[in-house]
Amino acid sequence: MNRRRLLLLGAQALVIAPAWADAPTSLTEGYGLLVDTTRCVGCQACEVACADAHDLPRPEVSPYTDRPVRGPGRPTRSVTAGAPTVVQRYHSRGGPVWAKKSCMHCLDPACVAACPAAAMVRASSGAVLHHPERCVRCHRCAQACPFDAVRFSAAGGTVSKCDLCHDRATRDQPPACAEICPQGAVSFGRRSALLELARSRMAASPGRYQERILGRREVGGTGVLVVSGVPFAALAYPSTLGATPAQAFTAAAGDAPSGIAASLAWAVGAALIPLLLFRMQRAPRPEQGP
Fold this sequence. Notes:
CATH topology of the domain at 3-28 and 105-165 and 242-281: Alpha-Beta Plaits
Radius of gyration: 19 Å
Helix content: 25-40%
Number of strands: 9
Mean pLDDT: 77
Oligomer: single chain
Largest sheet: 3 strands, mixed
Number of helices: 9
């Protein structure tokens, strides 16, 4: 990054400094989703509802039996700039398994720590949001995401990610994906209530689920929780993430920045994100219990 670019980032941070009032007052009591892959049938209704709610092109919806299965841990489709929510199909011994993939809405988001312009924030609702009017198009947020759920479009110079239908949540409406799911594979609510729901399903159906709730502790916890009947590695979820939040490894974590010096610190911290994520992945794995 050259001197001119660095000064530009510093000036940008000065302009948007008041935006740090958006910072949440509680990390654990935000809203989120519970994704139950044992209930997903791959209908892709959540994808269509997401596209309609965000004025995006509708995905091509066709029977997944017409799509190739690429083997364990290899999804047939991925999150893109124009599709922040996708249903991926995986192969397992018992047949195909589907998993809804989108932003995990981390409690201490790496993308927020990486952004030098405060374009990424975690709202008090628990949603991790992108503010395009602040974005300087460095796409460090996409590089920092441990779940590969933030997308940068080089053609349009824009960042795209799931926003948990934040505008609907403020009106006490569930996200479009949770509202439309015909199988109850996507549930919306307070994170604490979703954890209890996951535990109750696991207790009611011994042997149906893996003895783990993905997102309970990984990278400090996530707003989107996942339960599965097959190992999470088979669904291409990162299997070596520790419990330490990515923000804890950056100089950017902590109080709101102010002035050019703080903005420079943000930029330097963001540049170290790839190395810090590698270190984080080598940290001890979280406990495997629910």
